[in-house]
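The material for today's practical consists of a large collection of protein records. An example says more than a description, so a record of this kind follows:
***
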Amino acid sequence: MKKIKWGVLSTAKIGTQNVIPALQKSQLCEVVAISSRNIENAQSAAENLGIPKTYGSYEELLSDPEIEAIYNPLPNHLHVPWTIKAMEAGKHVLCEKPISVTATEAELLIQTTQKHPHLKVMEAFMYRFHPQWAKVKEIIKRGEIGEVRSINSVFTFYNVDPDNVRNKEVIGGGGVLDIGCYCINLSRFIFESEPINVKSFVDYDPVFKVDRLASGMLEFENGIATFMCSTQLDHRQSAVIYGTKGYMELNIPFNAGNEATRKIHLHTGGETETFFFEICDQYTLQGDAFSKSILENTPVPTPLEDALANMKVIDQILN
């Protein structure tokens, strides 16, 4: 089976700790190169991960003719610029979320993709590829919880490191762009529509100048979604989907430290049914799906129009 040859822009932790090892487990992906502005960092990561080629600049990696697809885990403000550079170099791109810092930036990216219709570009919301979400959709479609009317999600962690990219205002830091984007994406994913009204309350760190606590309310035609995200609260994630006949609780809606603990509690008619899932790597499933779209020349699972819609809500939350 043919494998897509991947190159990675930077030695960001999300790449070296999660995505690259996941791609290396895929039957459709082969990571052949990694780059860094510091060649020693690239060499160290390559040695640890068994990647054959290293580059001391992103430009060098993009000029490698062997590479077919790029994984872009750069800081948020570099997502669009380097995704565009990768496309101009003839590469497909899987770009970390959020796709951009503003909706205007996302629109620019979509305009650029229209000049390269043969290339695939997708935002890396890996959580959507976990089998639990297919189960959630199945339960909803079967009407087991009735009509969905409300969604509540939470995503928090504690990080006050001044050198962390999430605490740097000028490069797209802050909780909403980093983790609140998941809660917003989840709400739109379940309601399968866009909010008609958005309200928010945002608290900014007085030193870092980035949002450290945010609560949002999204009004849809058929219901309301609420969320809370924070970069300065103890770690927690959860999601509850409420319907007219029951509700579902997901203890790990987004990412798992221990995959074996992931489950869905379905509450209907005074009874509770719990669904467990075989251990899997949603990053591998994401890489498989993206590579398959390249190999078969089919649309990517999540189009950039979805990424733009998410950014439009984020803009309203932060402005």
About this structure: The mean pLDDT is 97. The CA atoms of residues 52 and 135 lie 38 Å apart. The radius of gyration is 20 Å.
